[in-house]
Design goal:
single chain, about 400 residues, alpha/beta, six-stranded mixed β-sheet, 15 strands, about 40% helix, binds 3,4-dihydroxybenzoic acid
Length: about 400
């Protein structure tokens, strides 16, 4: 009898210890942010990390009664590393949400882990349409290439006077989407596609491709390269005198990336692109965002990746608030679907059916404003859903 009392007392004591441990753990809400912090895609990681930290500085780190903890991991943009880090974050750190994903292959590699562990996965950068279909736990706050490429195909024929093009894309998911969605719409609009060129995603050499384009003498060159590679294309395009030969450079706004644009030189003036975000977007919300971002980051101008990260944090914070800090993966996911808000990019929402981003696509032209190069918006297509959704 005595022994039994003793045992249950110790069990009670153990239970008390473990419940306080659980309580301590329960009181933190962990976000595993996986980004390319080094290597070819490092600018994406630098921009998104800065934006996530700014969001937390502005909104506090206590949400729904929980202490929010951001765990940043560098995947060097190698998908196998992304996957391993995601596994460790879920199993060892017990993160509540996975976020980041600088390139499409990293998002695809992680999707099965999100599904198996029922962990919401917020894609803040990658832009291939089918990513959201690779796991029901994915929510996207970045963009899709199909959205901007269709808008560009409409502008090029109707207003740009560009009747004959060559396309040049990075040879992987988002490049294939950009090529397909641009080409199909451009042909439908009566344009001619002379050639479709694909350049390796890793360490690309644009020179031989650009020479081919020059020889084909199109009215326009449609280019998609991932964030960080735009300046190299612009430099070689100008060095070859392709602009002077009457070839207009067009494409999704990744090519006139705000992270690099101001260093591209006056040769970039007049380039028209289609995109969901410009640091020059003239709204009060954006002006406030750009100012705060620059102030917190030694004058760095935010690019479209930063906005994907900032909005991703918004989606996570609001889901945590709505579930009062008590929800698991499924409850959080439900609270992420259908969110509507005013982003620095303009109005946006998460389509509750597809879990994908719906936002405006702007046509912009590179102009000099206050001595700096900017993507200045001159037209808008409102509330663009992803044209690349097959279900
Ligand atoms: C992707 C990466 C980028 O840097 C970009 O600008 C667009 C798309 C991607 O891998 O999905």
């Amino acid at each position: 009898m005595k022994k039994r009392v003793f045992l249950s007392a110790s069990v009670l004591a153990m239970a008390a210890v473990s419940s306080s441990a659980v309580l301590a753990q329960d009181n933190t809400f962990k976000i595993g942010l996986i980004l390319p912090m080094t290597g070819q895609q490092a600018s994406t990681g630098r921009q998104i990390e800065a934006a996530a930290k700014l969001y937390m500085a502005q909104h506090g780190d206590t949400v729904g009664g929980k202490k929010v903890q951001l765990i940043v991991k560098d995947d060097t943009s190698v998908p196998d590393v992304t996957k391993r880090l995601a596994q460790e974050l879920v199993v060892n750190d017990k993160v509540n949400v996975l976020a980041g994903f600088g390139i499409t292959p990293s998002a695809f590699a992680t999707a099965p882990i999100a599904t198996q562990s029922k962990t919401p996965m917020v894609v803040m950068a990658a832009g291939t349409s089918s990513i959201t279909q690779s796991s029901p736990y994915i929510v996207r706050t970045s963009f899709t290439l199909a959205q901007s490429s269709v808008a560009m195909a409409d502008w090029a024929v109707a207003k740009g006077g560009i009747k004959k093009v060559v396309t040049l894309v990075s040879d992987y998911g988002p490049g294939h989407d950009a090529e397909k969605f641009f080409k199909d719409r451009y042909l439908f609009n009566g344009g001619t596609v002379v050639d479709t060129l694909r350049v390796p995603m890793r360490n690309p050499d644009f020179a031989p491709f650009l020479q081919k384009v020059r020889d084909a003498k199109p009215d326009g060159l449609f280019v998609f390269v991932p964030s960080g590679a735009g300046a190299a294309v612009m430099k070689q395009f100008l060095e070859r005198g392709m602009d002077k030969a009457g070839i207009k450079l067009i494409g999704p706004g990744d090519i006139t990336d705000d992270d690099q644009l101001n260093d591209m030189g006056d040769g970039a003036l007049g380039v028209v692109t289609s995109h969901f975000y410009s640091a020059h977007h003239p709204s009060a919300t954006n002006k406030k965002f750009v100012e705060a971002f620059k102030k917190a980051n030694k004058g760095m101008r935010p690019n479209f990746m930063a906005v994907g990260g900032y909005d991703g944090m918004r989606v996570i914070y609001e889901a945590l608030k709505a579930t009062k800090g008590q929800g698991g993966g499924d409850a959080l996911l439900a609270a992420m679907k259908g969110q509507v808000w005013e982003s620095p990019r303009g109005p946006m929402f998460i389509d509750a059916q597809t879990r994908d981003v719906v936002h405006n696509i702007y046509l912009r032209k590179v102009e000099k404003v206050g001595g700096e190069l900017h993507n200045v918006e001159f037209d808008v297509i409102k509330d663009v859903k992803d044209p690349g959704k097959t279900k």
